[in-house]
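Sequence dictates fold. Below is an illustrative record:

_____
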Amino acid sequence: MNNRLPPAWAKHLKTQPSVRAAPPKVPLPKAKTQAGPSRAQADDMLLRQALELQKAERLPEAEELCHRVLARTPEHPLALYILGTLGLGFDDELAIEYFSRAAAQAPNNPYYQLSLGEAWLKVGDYPPAVRHLQRACELKPDLVEAHCSLGQAYGKFDKGELALPAYDKALEIERDHSLARIGAARTLINLGRMDEAAIYLKENIARRVAVADSYSVLVGTRKFSSEPPELASILDELGSSAISAHEAHELNFAAGKVFNDLRHYDKAMDHFLRARTFKVRDFDIDSHRKRIDALIELFDPKLLAAKVGCGDPSEAPVFVVGMPRSGTTLTEQICSSHPDVHGAGELTKLGRIAAANGLKLGSADAFGQPIRSLTMQQSHALAKDYLANLALYTSTAPRIVDKMPHNFELIGLIAILFPNARIIHCRRDAIDNCVSCFISSLQQGHSYSYDLKSLGLYYREYDRLMRHWQAVLPGRIFENRYEDLISDQEGQSRRLIGHLGLTWDDACLRFFEKEGSVRTLSRWQVRQPIYTSSVQRWKNYGNKIQPLIDALGDLAAT
């Protein structure tokens, strides 16, 4: 998402009529004989200054000017809009509130609808994102960003067939729009249409559109058994001095992936290591340890016992959790191949509920205080809120899988809000799991994976927290070991379905035939029958991964 204002906004400021709200409660000063600027003109002057301050990244000053405008012209849409753009990345929920207020005051402004839709998309709430982005497209049919974002929202909402026309419309407006071309290709891949996606991506490269991203996506459409011509081209691109850090990252990952497929493991790891040097390594292990300490201290046996009877008795939610690359996507595919199970993908709703209720360091309340003081009625409301969001993905399936791996941090909250929900923990050999994270281009929010040592230390904290959950919630968590699933697919699959309280269905053995989109890095693998080459794969990389093994310590031997 761009933290941007509409083009030619200075001109827009001159022509946009100001919205006048109810007069302030304090008496207005008497009008002076000498004519001065009207309130609308004064507001516009302040907002022009706010825009300049925002461009100069003097954000607190820009915010202060917006609030000055709102103090005398409540619900001024442009002031609200600017505050929304200032909030993105800092407090996305507050940004949504500001954008919503701006859009309510000026419902026919396409930029307000666009930014509101993109903000919903950013936090992972796709139905309102689709609604506002559709409205932006209706209001301004040539707004290419709106069509691109609508395509992305449809794709995230598991409606890939609707995403493609949105990208097509964007490309009608701007034939070489990089986000549209990459988005269309990713959607085709998610739908399993690998050959079509490859044609699309090769055309991008030939047209010099998003070349690095196109190569990075292209090499993920297949597994290579012989050296493809693209490898030499990727290496040539890497030799250019004109590429950006982002492009260097993507191209090194593409080269690493091809070399990995070809079993040239030393060369592959060299490229993966080089790629990581172009990422900002801002992961703070000390801060993360404090969070894990706080979770363990909060969700102790005493609190869990005090909250018995809270939440909602629904058996619909199924939470598949674990480290990324631990088999969560495979597990979801197996489960959702059952006719009574729907896979909703990686949902953000539980995390947003947790953040709003004090489960993040630095929140206004003491960590977890809203959970400690949670009443029965409040717990029912939170559970209903989550279930209403879950029902947007299907209203008929008895079981709905939320496959957000990092919900492993929120198992205590799950236990309180959904005492009958199934929890499946995917665990994999520690070194294999971490190596897979390192050589996968995980999305934003996984900065712990940019460095082998940090990755190993992070894994230790994950393991510590999972051991706590197993101790305080005995019998609640089904441990699904990746290696067991590989060695005994049918036996482990039957145990999974049994854990869900469902009768067995042979379709669960043919998970790779399941139709629909797959929206994770595992999208190629889960369309294949189970294979064993990913077990003990870490041994291929020798001493290049020694910092990871050292950081894992005793977990490297389990």
